[in-house]
Amino acid sequence: MSNVDEHEIDKFSQIAHKWWDKDSEFKPLHEINPLRLGYIDDHSGGLAGKTVLDVGCGGGILAESMAVKGATVTGIDLAKKSLKVAQLHSLESGVAVNYRCVPVEELAAEAPASFDVVTCMEMLEHVPDPQSVVDACARLVKPDGWVFFSTLNRNAKSYLMAIVGAEYLLGLLPRGTHEYARFLKPSELTRMTRHAGLELADISGMEYHPLTRRYFLSGNSDVNYLIATRRPR
After folding, report:
1. Which is higher by pLDDT, 210 or 137?
2. How far is 196 from 186, CA to CA, in rounded Å?
3. What fold characterizes domain 6-231?
4. Which parts are annotated binding residues?
5. Known binding positions for S-adenosyl-L-methionine
6. According to a count of CB atoms within 10 Å of the terminal CB, is the N or C end of the chain lower?
7. pLDDT, tens digit, for every residue of 18-43?
8. What whole-number distance in Å separates Cα of residue 214 and Cα of residue 66?
9. Rg, Å, the chain Cα set
10. Per-position DSSP letters for 81-100, written without gaps between them
């Protein structure tokens, strides 16, 4: 449990009841979810029939959508209030997801090489030791399986757009959601994945158009970006 920032847990716990309110602070996550889901589904060769682990699942937005695609999904998080919301929503929606409150490192020791696909979205920038999370994700995926990450680049543009713009000017996110020093450059994250024994397959940027208020994938990873990696046989 050492790789936990209690301030981050408390921050999300305070607004946990709003996870499934599409007009709340979680609106951006609902809006980017189809992009994330499509990216994961495409690169993994289709989620149907696969065992999937969603690390840092929060209220279950991505986890449920992957289950709808036909995957057998486990979601883990350390924010108990968020997990309770995820469990209740699963009961209401009828979409089965197995939720657990367990550190990813502990689960990696308990069940190595157990999943076809592992996802870790918008989480690495909220933990003290992202390398530890990347290593655990690599241990949890089966040989030839896929591991997906998304996070925020660290540069002047990302600071202006993700913090000044999204949190202070546009109000897309609550103020204090992100800490700039914890953002990860693609070169840093890919180095972490190589250290964990994963092979890089793709990097794609995720952009937001303020006029159309739509998110789209692109080759520009200056701010938000996703990466697809694979564990060799």
Report:
1. 137
2. 15
3. Rossmann fold (3.40.50)
4. 36, 56, 77, 121
5. 36, 56, 77, 121
6. C
7. 999 998 888 888 999 999 999 999 99
8. 21
9. 16
10. HHHHHHHHHHHHHT---EEE
Model pTM score: 0.91
How far is Cα 228 from Cα 59, in angstroms, rounded to an integer? 23
Tokens of 148: 């997906």
All residues at 6 or more sequence positions from 128 whose CB lies less than 8 Å from its CB, including other chains:
3, 4, 5
State mean pLDDT over 154-159. Answer: 81
Judging by beta carbons within 10 Å of its beta carbon (0-12, 13-18, 19+), is residue 151 exposed, middle or buried?
A: buried
Q: What is the residue-wise DSSP string for the chain? A: --S--HHHHHHHHTTGGGTT-TTSTTHHHHHHHHHHHHHHHHHTT--TT-EEEEET-TTSHHHHHHHHTT-EEEEE-S-HHHHHHHHHHHHHHT---EEE---HHHHHHHSTT-EEEEEEES-GGGSS-HHHHHHHHHHHEEEEEEEEEEEE--SHHHIIIIIIIIIIIS-SS-TTS--GGG---HHHHHHHHHHTTPEEEEEEEEEEETTTTEEEEES--SSEEEEEEE---
Q: Which of 11-15, 70-74, 179-183, 223-227 holds the top average pLDDT?
A: 70-74
Q: What are the domain boundaries of the chain?
A: 6-231
Task: Give 169's contacts (C-beta < 8 A, 6+ positions apart).
Answer: none
Tokens read off for 45: 């060769």
CA dihedral for 78, 84, 87, 92, sign (positive or negative): negative
Mean pLDDT of 119-127: 94
